[in-house]
């Protein structure tokens, strides 16, 4: 598989109140075409900053060192066209005063050059692909008329409307209940496989990530501390911090993902 994204020695600092805070430090990795890479870490580990840096969405005044390259493109990526972004809160990407159909159709018009009629047909098809009941009716709905899980499905449909090469899901399931989380993960797996997209799946939940990822990258305090195949990270982690994340994954009726003897 070809390399779709290269991150090399990436560093990000935020400026404010007369000081500079480093939030990402010397991060390097590659993401291949069709690959699913999970970015795991606690709150404040730099996961979301990494996603924003890749998408070119960092706030003004941020300092960026290192490089983000797109070997397959001969230009800078266009958000919405080359890269789709699904946020934790779909309200971040959905306009409350426009219908669902208008919002998805606008992406098709802007990036695919479709007429309004073609764009609406494309939007209805996408709502079917994300398994929203009665797509034709959903086109006429406003975001507040849908449940949280349905709004997230709409946000995914909007993110993939122009068939981007990379889909970034930043904590896209963390605000949903467990059953809906599992449904969204299965949906992302399905769409990525069908469209040949690469997926950057950002989560604090290493168990959830292990279900969808080919590889897992573990972040702590803005640094990439370990990266490897999902099976290797779960079954034979090298770093003590990764072992602690695995050992901490204890549900009420779920055993730890990590064998007791592996915790050291």
From TrEMBL:
<dbReference type="InterPro" id="IPR003593">
    <property type="entry name" value="AAA+_ATPase"/>
</dbReference>
<keyword id="KW-0472">Membrane</keyword>
<keyword id="KW-0813">Transport</keyword>
<dbReference type="InterPro" id="IPR003439">
    <property type="entry name" value="ABC_transporter-like_ATP-bd"/>
</dbReference>
<dbReference type="InterPro" id="IPR017871">
    <property type="entry name" value="ABC_transporter-like_CS"/>
</dbReference>
<dbReference type="GO" id="GO:0005524">
    <property type="term" value="F:ATP binding"/>
</dbReference>
<keyword id="KW-0547">Nucleotide-binding</keyword>
<keyword id="KW-1003">Cell membrane</keyword>
<feature type="domain" description="ABC transporter">
    <location>
        <begin position="7"/>
        <end position="246"/>
    </location>
</feature>
<dbReference type="InterPro" id="IPR027417">
    <property type="entry name" value="P-loop_NTPase"/>
</dbReference>
<dbReference type="GO" id="GO:0005886">
    <property type="term" value="C:plasma membrane"/>
</dbReference>
<dbReference type="GO" id="GO:0016887">
    <property type="term" value="F:ATP hydrolysis activity"/>
</dbReference>
<dbReference type="Pfam" id="PF00005">
    <property type="entry name" value="ABC_tran"/>
</dbReference>
<comment type="similarity">
    <text>Belongs to the ABC transporter superfamily.</text>
</comment>
<protein>
    <submittedName>
        <fullName>ABC transporter ATP-binding protein</fullName>
    </submittedName>
</protein>
<dbReference type="InterPro" id="IPR050388">
    <property type="entry name" value="ABC_Ni/Peptide_Import"/>
</dbReference>
<keyword id="KW-0997">Cell inner membrane</keyword>
<keyword id="KW-1278">Translocase</keyword>
<keyword id="KW-0067">ATP-binding</keyword>
């Amino acid at each position: 598989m070809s390399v779709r994204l290269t991150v090399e020695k990436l560093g990000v600092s935020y400026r404010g109140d007369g000081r500079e805070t480093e939030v990402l430090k010397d991060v390097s990795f590659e993401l291949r075409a069709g690959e699913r890479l999970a970015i795991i870490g606690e709150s404040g580990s730099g996961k979301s900053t990494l996603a924003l840096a890749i998408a070119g969405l960092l706030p003004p005044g941020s300092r960026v060192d290192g490089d983000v390259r797109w070997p397959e493109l001969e230009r800078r990526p266009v958000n919405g066209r080359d890269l789709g972004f699904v946020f934790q809160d779909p309200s971040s990407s959905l306009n409350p005063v426009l219908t669902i159909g208008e919002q998805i159709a606008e992406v098709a018009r802007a990036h695919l050059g479709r007429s309004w009629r073609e764009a609406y047909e494309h939007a209805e098809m996408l709502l079917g692909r994300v398994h929203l009941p009665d797509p034709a009716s959903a086109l006429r709905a406003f975001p507040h008329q849908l449940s949280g899980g349905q709004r997230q499905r709409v946000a995914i449909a909007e993110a993939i409307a122009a068939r981007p090469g990379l889909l970034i899901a930043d904590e896209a399931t963390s605000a949903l209940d467990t059953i809906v989380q599992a449904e969204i993960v299965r949906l992302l797996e399905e769409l990525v496989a069908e469209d040949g997209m690469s997926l950057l799946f950002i989560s604090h939940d290493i168990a959830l990530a292990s279900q969808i990822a080919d590889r897992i990258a573990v972040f702590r305090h803005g640094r990439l501390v370990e990266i490897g195949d999902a099976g290797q990270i779960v079954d034979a982690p090298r770093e003590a911090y990764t072992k602690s994340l695995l050992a901490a994954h204890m549900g009420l009726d779920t055993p730890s993902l990590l064998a007791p003897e592996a915790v050291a």
